[in-house]
Amino acid sequence: MNRNASKLLATLLASIAAAGSALAAYPERPVTMIVPFAAGGPTDQVARIVGEHMSKTLGQTIVIENVTGAGGTTGITRGAQAAADGYTIMMGHMGTHGAAPALYPTLKYDPAKDFSPIGLAAGTPIVIVAKKDFAAKDLKEFVAKMKADGPKLNEGNAGVGSVSHTTCTLLTSQLSVKTARVTYKGTGPMINDLIGGQIDFGCDQIVSVAEQIKAGTIKAYAIATPERSPALPDLPTTKEAGLPDYQVSAWNAMFAPKGTPADVAAKLNDALVKALDDEGTRKRLLNLGAVIPDKAGRSPAALQKLVESEVARWTPVLKAAGISAAVNPAAATSGTPPPAAGAPAAAPAAPAPAAPAK
Q1: CA 239 from chain center: how many Å?
Q2: Using CA atoms, how far apart are residues 351 and 186, in angstroms rounded to an integer?
Q3: Beta-carbon neighbour count of residue 83 at 10 Å?
Q4: DSSP per residue, 308-323
Q5: CB atoms within 10 A of CB 226
Q6: Closest Cα to residue 165, out of 353, 323, 287?
Q7: Residues carrying CATH 3.40.190.10, the chain
Q8: Could you give the CA distance from residue 92 to residue 89 in angstroms, rounded to a whole number?
Q9: At 328, is the secondary structure helix, strand, or coil?
Q10: Are the CB atoms for 156 and 202 separated by under 8 Å?
């Protein structure tokens, strides 16, 4: 072997060794986790709870960056375009990785192709709720009221593409009814108006409504899961209450940009799994009403399958309902102001840029 060839080989071996060393040392600095909604909502809470324990496992701080806008797609787009080195990850959910393709014709990412899935972090069951003096004592009476007076009933949601919006769309689709939709800039204003009686009903994550239900400031009819929730043990399931086909839960999951090294993705998944096995972390998630995924559901492969199935599930529902964020492109940037008390939305509104609880 001549001298030049020897130098070339030595350089190549050094590069391979350096790359291996870099992977072994990951992470060498803080990791940014993009949360595509404002601080304080369920997605943000789940991210901070699991991120805190993951930081201990990784030996580096996970820094939460809230990047709001367009139903969460603004933050996820930024994450998808970040360097695939493991130092930028994101917490997506049912809307950003399930409903978004049907809602945003110019979406800049493909949920099933443009990410390295890390793992499922939590499920958040959906609860059918109403103002406390709504004229229905149980779910059967609620359904009857919907079928009789649907267009007169104000249905609140946190913005086009929000979990509250998509899950109520599924409900009204199954019941073949139309309602007067009232679109807000996030869950907080919506819940406030539900408590105040300015809107009639909504569908939302248990994390957003459990405390109000317990306090008696709003009414709950059923939880859309096969089994009751420990957080609301007296609340019947939709199956028990007479609407067995309405089964839906939101979820939060961790993703990295496409092309993230397999070893790095594996370390992130390992840290997530350890967080979900930690007693303190589990207690905090359960107190929110979240469902902790079983071991089989925490793998990257399981998350990839979930994303594909969610896109397939939500696309026909939302397209059949004629819902699109392109209905009002200008409002998609600025957001739609909360309506006056009791005022129904005249048409599907644009996504709320800062939907706190979705």
Answers
A1: 24
A2: 9
A3: 10
A4: HHHHHHHHHHHHHTT-
A5: 13
A6: 323
A7: 125-249+326-334
A8: 10
A9: coil
A10: yes
Q: In the numeric block, which tokens belong to residue 210?
A: 């459990």
- Give 96-127 pLDDT, tens digit per residue: 999 999 999 999 999 999 999 999 999 999 99
146: left (phi over 0), alpha (psi -120 to 50) or beta: alpha
* For range 167-177, the mean pLDDT: 95
243 touches 141 (CB < 8 A): no
Strands (E), the chain: 31-35, 62-66, 88-93, 115-131, 154-157, 180-183, 201-205, 218-223, 249-257
pTM (2 decimals)? Answer: 0.80
Q: Are strands 218-223 and 115-131 parallel, antiparallel or unpaired?
A: antiparallel
Backbone angles phi, psi at 71, to 5 degrees: 60, 25
**Tell me: domain 125-249+326-334, CATH 3.40.190.10, correct?**
yes
Q: 């972390």: which residue's tokens? A: 281
CATH of 31-122+251-314, one of 3.90.226.10, 3.60.21.10, 3.40.630.30, 3.40.190.150: 3.40.190.150
